[in-house]
Give the backbone structure.
Amino acid sequence: MYIGGRWSTVCDAAFDQQDAEVVCRELDCGAPVQVLGEDAFGKGDAQMWTQEIQCRGNESHIQRCQSSTSHNINCTHEHNVGLICSGYTDLRLVNGPDVCSGRVERQYFSKWGTVCDACWDMRAASVLCRQLNCGIAVSVVGSDWFGEGSGEIWADVFDCDGNETKLSECSVSSWSRAECSHRRDVGVVCSNSSLAVHDGLVRLSGERQCEGELEVSIHQVWRRVLLDSWSLTESSVVCRQLGCGSVLNFSGSSSSSPEHSHECVTGFQCSGSEAHLGNCSSPQTLNCSSTQQLSITCL
């Protein structure tokens, strides 16, 4: 920190996550990823700033944060604090009919780039839609929906639980950039988009994200799907909608009683090109048959 005409290093005991939010924002470096000790970046030889920094987290500059003057923290250069910021500063959905659907693009420092479909799933899409104030994710689609981008392809994988408020709260891992091209640019449709049909949200109830018994939201109620009249065409739409690739197989399932076990649906008819089941012909609701409920495995 540049204070009183000179640079000072900061003690780790005087620095917390809210302070890190402000520093990354001031440097135009996105959100903090990790706060580290002196072993990460060396001890340094500048004067120590030992007063506790007391940011709320929403300040634009660290100089606007208060600092504690009631006591000084006893620090040495063994306790210098270090920081890693994400570098991702903005997100947007482009080439759709509105701001709540389109090709996913992320800004890394000042450069915009697309996202590879191998790095993206329904959970990350849900967090993105929430961050953009666009409701919840309806489907994850490929470049055939919103076109191919140009320039950089950001291949970091956001490993989200799905309940985070923004993508910077998800852990990040790397993906081989050799696996990605603009033919694999991913798009997202959020529920607040004009493309979204609220009936037709899907989820799989298995232990793994991309396999399990299929549940579809109809009139805001989650319902199981019966095997009758179901085909590989409808399965391919579900797997695409979930960001789970193509369909491997589907079968009848006779598992234990699901939530709302008395309500099932049948009669979906898809062409195979739809982004989500809500764009297929409307199903019929009927009582469940425990031996006919549908299970899907996506690649």
Notes: The chain is about 15% helix and 30% strand. Residues 101 and 189 are 4 Å apart (CA to CA). The longest strand covers residues 101-108.
